[in-house]
UniProtKB/TrEMBL annotation:
EC number: 1.14.11.33
SUPFAM superfamilies attached to this UniProt entry: Clavaminate synthase-like
Key words of the record: Dioxygenase, Iron, Metal-binding, Oxidoreductase
NCBIfam families on file: PRK15401.1
GO molecular function, one term: broad specificity oxidative DNA demethylase activity
InterPro entries membership: Alkb, AlkB-like, AlkB-like_sf, Oxoglu/Fe-dep_dioxygenase_dom
Pfam families, per database record: 2OG-FeII_Oxy_2
Organism: Marinobacter albus
Record protein name field: DNA oxidative demethylase AlkB
Length: 216
């Protein structure tokens, strides 16, 4: 029981090196959380969150949207980045200033200067939603890091190896945590376990994850 009491304590901002190029910046986004969530609402008002189809014909449990010059999409034709939203045919909403500044600042804090993302994927997990182990390899330049921002309910992140069969390490990610994945960690398999039921004061019964990428 005692452990649960401390689960929700945010703690001080601090940075933890995980392995080879991956850095967790605990609480790096906490003070900007309200502004980030307001910006998510603006983006998803014109590019609605949706459950996309995998090339194998499954419906993803996570709801997704994008902003920036490029957006990541999946359908029965495959995975790819494209400049327009397939749902509306319109260009993806532009990247909010608060997104771009946070992504640059986090990359810099982790030692990656001049990160200039052209895509931000917005993931929304509701209870039961998960993302199986996968690699992010639809981008053109793997020298560019990926920055991820967690908001709302906590969720367990799984960090695997360069081969799918390597046993993953579990890393709990909380509201306000930012992770920068670069160098040799960039192509590691990763995923998130099913979101547990709960309620967060700012997001209610869900977790948002923002991932900033250089797609082209
Ligand atoms: C490690 N999202 O959108 S973020 C994804 O919580 C994705 O929504 C998860 O994996 C989420 O593709 C995890 C952390 C993350 C993102 C990209 C990575 C970790 C990564 C790329 C390489 C290595
Ligand atoms: Fe990923």
């Amino acid at each position: 029981m005692t452990a649960d009491l401390f689960d929700d304590l945010p703690g001080e901002p601090r940075s933890e090196a995980i392995v080879d190029g991956a850095v967790v910046l605990r609480q790096f986004a906490r003070e900007k959380a309200e502004a980030l969530l307001a910006a998510i609402d603006r983006v998803t008002a014109s590019a609605p969150l949706r459950h996309m189809q995998t090339p194998g014909g499954h419906t993803m449990s996570v709801a997704m949207s994008c902003c920036g010059d490029q957006g990541w999409v999946t359908d029965t034709r495959g995975y790819r980045y494209q400049p327009t939203d397939p749902l509306t045919g319109a260009p993806w909403p532009s990247m909010p200033g608060v997104f771009e500044r946070l992504a640059r600042d986090a990359a810099e804090a982790a030692g990656y200067r001049d990160f200039c993302p052209d895509a931000c994927l917005i993931n929304r997990y509701e209870p039961g939603a998960k993302m199986g182990l996968h690699q992010d390899k639809d981008e053109t330049d793997f020298e560019q890091p990926i920055v991820s921002v967690s908001l709302g309910l906590p969720q367990v992140f799984q960090f695997g190896g360069l081969k799918r069969n390597e046993r993953p390490v579990n890393i709990p990610l909380a509201h306000g945590d930012v992770v920068v994945w670069g160098g040799p960690s960039r192509l590691r398999y990763h995923g998130v376990l099913r979101l547990k039921t709960g309620s967060h004061p700012l997001t209610g019964a869900c977790r948002y994850n923002l991932t900033f990428r250089r797609a082209c």
